[in-house]
Amino acid sequence: MKDKQINTPTNRMALLKDRLKTRFWDFITVSLLVTIFLVPLIVWNMSLTYSDTFTINDDNFLFTGLIVYAPYILFIMIFGLGVVGALYYSKRLAFGEGANPVKDFFYGIKVNLKPSLLGFFLLGLIYFLLSYGKIIIIYSGGLNDILKGVIVGLLYVAFLFLFLIISFYLTQNIIYRATIRQFFSNAIRFTFGMVGWNMLILLVILFPFFIYEFVPFALARYIAMALSALFYFEFSIFVFTIYSHSIFDLTINDDYPEIYRKGLTKEENNND
């Protein structure tokens, strides 16, 4: 039976509005499911916050920084399982395939397990290098504060570009069948071919991350985490999913006419 909730909007902004209106509670459900996979990282961060054992200073920053941030690789891989489940659900929701938030979430993890572990291993490794590199720069002598700030800023810029590459790798993997090399080659082209729009979309999908990373107030971080758990995880993943689909339509979907503008009304002269 056709899902009566699924409409066919004429563009992806209308698609986003429609799904928020008709599937709002699903967004909450999937966000909560994603949060389950974030629990190990939350527990680790809390243990760091409320324990003096891992306090970093001038004498121990190399060893303690390594102990503090190396586990992030594993925890981000675990979190990635939740993200890929949400990505699969978001793909079905965007394509109008009668998505079920729980069933499709866990099925998405099952069928995309290996690619997601690879993608989030790379993301975890990159975040570890960013965080550990930050510690080394901050506590190393011989650099003035301005130069330290510039270097740290460049590390974050590099992280954001690599985050985009991995994200496009993951959204391709949900839909297509190709080699890892082809996925990453396409992802690099998508990342640097639309830099302006990509930076704008990052402000939307990583908004809670930016608060957690740069706002030095515990209350703001807790609010960002609560917002993500209750709604923003699935919202940001769905936004990036339909954004990816629009780029795929402009670039590679000429070879996949069956999914060109899938989920949208097939009308001429419509803009995505």
Short description:
Helix content is 75%, strand content 0%. With 272 residues, the chain is an all-alpha fold. It is globular and about 65 Å long.
Spatial extent as radius of gyration: 20 Å
Strands, count: 0
Mean pLDDT: 90
Helix content percent band? over 70%
For the terminal residues, how far apart are their CA atoms?
28 Å
Which parts are unreliable, with pLDDT below 50 for 5 consecutive residues or more? 1-7
Kindly name the structural category: mainly alpha
| Share of β-strand residues | under 5%
N-to-C order of helices and strands: HHHHHHHHHHHH
Q: Please report the number of helical segments.
A: 12
Overall outline: globular
Biggest sheet record: none
Description:
The protein has 272 residues and is mainly α. It has twelve helices and no strands. The protein has helices at 12-22, 24-36, 39-49, 61-69, 71-95, 101-111, 113-139, 145-175, 180-193, 195-205, 207-214, 218-251. The longest helix has 34 residues, at 218-251. It is globular, with a radius of gyration of 20 Å. Mean pLDDT is 90; it is low at 1-7.
What is the element layout, followed by pairings?
Blueprint: H1 12-22, H2 24-36, H3 39-49, H4 61-69, H5 71-95, H6 101-111, H7 113-139, H8 145-175, H9 180-193, H10 195-205, H11 207-214, H12 218-251
Keywords:
272 residues, mainly alpha, 12 helices, 75% helix
